[in-house]
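Give me the fold.
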Amino acid sequence: MSEIIKHRQIVADEWRSVADDETVGTGPVIVSLARFLAEREALLARGEALGVRVPPDVRLDALAGDLPRLALIAVEFPVFKDGRGFSVARLLRERYGFHGEIRAVGDVLRDQLFFMERSGFDAFAVRPGKSLQDALAAFDEFSVTYQAAADDPRPLFRRRG
């Protein structure tokens, strides 16, 4: 079983990513947005934890009504320099009120984790071949943040007191 970082801890990944041409089976699964939209009723009727993998250019309106029934949204980072996934996470938390797991998948690097967490991510599938122990240190590199973000909507001057 593979491992991920979730809530700043290394944990076993209980989720299974399912390809579009693969049988879903049982247990918690993550399917593509295209498959979810095509098989929505059958996937939701399974009665098991369901996650949807979305591209960084996703229009979240397509998922808005189903968000309360989804346990996980996996946001793809096709290349490390593509920052659109940060906006997806923030919109999910702030505009859509999503309380489930938001996982960064794909080309996820240590240098991004602190900022991903601030944007609303709480789980990270770090790029294969990278040390999860080393990646955990990224969360402690900054002790003070100035700007408001999904993890704390108050700017620094509102937190002082």
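The longest helix spans residues 33-45.
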